[in-house]
């Protein structure tokens, strides 16, 4: 996987929002740093998951990649082309090659548009095919995502949540993209349906060689859907690694705290890592030094003074395991999160993701 060519290169991207006070003569009183210097590479055929608590900047990063919002700084390259500088026809072409699947499939579908028309709409926008060709493609896409051709004439309210997400995926695939940005694609769905949609995404990835930028907060989803993981905190990546390295030996205390939130029934494992406490600080006024020091159980005086850079870990994970923590190499090891180490409910949930493909829900 690591040998594949880069498809998406994000370099030091930032999104800052000015905060103003006053009505007539509003003055700037601060800056919200929603995304603050994020860099990563996504290779062809790979799934990279951006993970973190709500408000950490992962969805903003997804929208920056799609150029749905303009970056304050940084560069985004797609297949070598500069997305940040693209205009007019060049930007339209790039947008055809990158599609997004939204969290709420109902909100992302027009309730007054028949499903067939909703799936065909991106093809019409990009001038792809004749009307007959588009209708044939809609039938093909409906079958691909586990629905039936006759569903084309129905409306979004006639479908379940999982079926609506399948429709959203079919719509995204209609223009034959190379990259799918999946923004919390299953978090609004029931657990058993989540597994079906994740498995569908994996099948489609293998079949069409797709690359996924997966935005998620659910580690069960990430563990089975991602190749690499980047953990975000307060607008920055604080740790990134191959998923096996990250789950086996997380180096950043925030990653460890996220993993500790996975329920474990074994009393011997409980309490070895404390779940994260408190709320994230405001991105309007982040703490000095390491932004995590106000919640970190390992913080030392240096942490409040010096901002730790994202640096390679010599201790484990091989190439590509980076963490932004002064004490990363000195922290005690934690028990790896394995399917057998989590609660029966969570284990059943993982089994859904790892087991045989289930039939589409009715
Ligand atoms: Fe915790 Fe210090 Fe590491 Fe930040 S640098 S994560 S405060 S130990």
What does this structure look like?
The strands form two sheets. Strands 6-7-8-3-9-10-12-11 form an eight-stranded mixed beta sheet, with helices on both faces. It has a four-stranded antiparallel beta sheet with strand order 2-1-4-5. It contains eleven helices and twelve strands. A hairpin with a 5-residue loop joins strand 1 and strand 2. The longest helix has 18 residues. The C terminus is likely disordered. It folds into two domains: 176 residues, P-loop containing nucleotide triphosphate hydrolases (Rossmann fold, 3-Layer(aba) Sandwich); 93 residues, no CATH class. With 362 residues, it is of the alpha/beta class. Helix 4 crosses helix 5. Bound molecules: iron/sulfur cluster. The site of iron/sulfur cluster (SF4) has 13 residues, from loops. Its main location: membrane. This is Oligopeptide transport ATP-binding protein OppF. One of its GO terms (molecular function) is ATP hydrolysis activity.
Low-pLDDT stretches:
338-347, 352-362
The chain-level structural class is: alpha/beta
CATH topology of the largest domain: Rossmann fold
* Order of helix and strand elements from N to C terminus: EEEHEEHEHHHEHEHEEHHHEEH
Roughly how many Å apart are the termini? 36 Å
How many strand elements? Answer: 12
Count of all domains: 2
Q: Which ligands accompany this protein?
A: iron/sulfur cluster
CATH superfamily of the largest domain: P-loop containing nucleotide triphosphate hydrolases
Widest sheet, order of strands? 6-7-8-3-9-10-12-11
Per DSSP, the total helix count is: 11
Largest sheet: 8 strands, mixed
Give the strand content: 15-25%
What is the assembly state of the chains in this entry? Answer: single chain
- State the helical fraction: 25-40%
CATH class of the largest domain: Alpha Beta
Q: In the CATH classification, which architecture of the largest domain applies?
A: 3-Layer(aba) Sandwich
Radius of gyration: 21 Å
Q: What is the overall silhouette?
A: globular
Please, what is the average pLDDT? Answer: 86
